[in-house]
Known about the structure:
One of its GO terms (molecular function) is aldehyde-lyase activity. This protein is of the alpha/beta class.
Amino acid sequence: MKFFVDTADIAAIAELNDLGMVDGVTTNPSIIAKSGRDILEVTKEICDLVEGPVSAEVVALDADSMITEGRKLAEIAENIAVKVPLTWDGLKACKVLSGEGKMVNVTLCFSANQALLAAKAGATFISPFIGRLDDINLDGLELISDIRDIYDNYGFDTQILAASIRNANHMSDCAKIGADVATAPPAVIKAMANHVLTDKGLAGFMADIAKAGIKIV
Ligand code: E4P
């Protein structure tokens, strides 16, 4: 499973990228607003840092304007994936932009039917939002599983990009189901390294090292 980082925080992206943990980056208007930076400028900086796809989202609601914005975003760098919302206009924009050879990430997906439409419209990525479904007592992971079945049944090559990931368990659950990509905030990716028994085991080793005076260099 590929790891995308869901942030516009350059330092956080760079830290994970140096460890080989970054296969791509996703942003959305809320993330860009939080960064306090110009969307074109910060997106260019991310594209210069990361080799994989960098999702940048349109802000218009009608298809023609989304297409215009998508073309402008795609000029930033070759690794831009234009992000469009899963509305009828978003699907129209997806069809046109993917037809021009641009990567398109269709976002705000909350049902298997929406994912089916995005694949038919030529999406490179479909972004089902796990956490926001869980927030309203629905099952985000079940949606990932349903989309996996549907795409496999018909051989769609649209990649399932599990989004709205809130904790480290979501990451391993998505990997078990067979999501192609999971995008998560840097803190969630780092939390994957944590285990209470690792901490306990290390504390025990450190105590014995001190007692025995073990040194390597
Ligand atoms: C994905 O592309 C979105 O930017 C993101 O995962 C949304 O996550 P949230 O529901 O935590 O805002």
